[in-house]
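Exercise 7b. Backbone tokens:
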């Protein structure tokens, strides 16, 4: 018998504990057949799962649209807010040190 993947993080390493299924990677617990809400997982450039309130670091120089300024590598963005419904790819809303509020793409940041 194969167990279903975790509905929260899609891990294949789920296991049974009584009537519960448990994911060892994200600690999500659910009952088989239980309807769970669709959860969108946003990961950084290294594959780490991001959550609201995390601090991230920019891994590539980023040009600011409509300006001649550049966000340099290593710039920190504290207390991020995830935007799972982003259609333009900018799935992080944050305040960047020295620049103010802006949206970033998760593929250009890493979790601190």
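Sequence design result:
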């Amino acid at each position: 018998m194969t167990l279903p993947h975790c509905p929260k993080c899609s891990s294949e390493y789920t296991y049974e504990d009584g009537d519960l299924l448990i994911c060892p990677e994200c600690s999500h617990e659910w009952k088989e057949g239980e309807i769970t809400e669709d959860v969108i997982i946003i990961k950084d450039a290294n594959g780490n799962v991001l959550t609201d309130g995390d601090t991230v670091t920019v891994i590539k120089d980023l040009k600011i649209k409509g300006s001649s300024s550049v966000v340099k590598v290593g710039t920190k963005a504290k207390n991020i807010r995830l935007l799972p419904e982003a259609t333009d790819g900018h799935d992080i809303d944050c305040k960047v040190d020295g620049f103010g509020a802006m949206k970033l793409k998760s593929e250009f940041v890493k979790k601190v």
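Instructor comment: Residues 20 and 84 are 28 Å apart (CA to CA). The mean pLDDT is 87.
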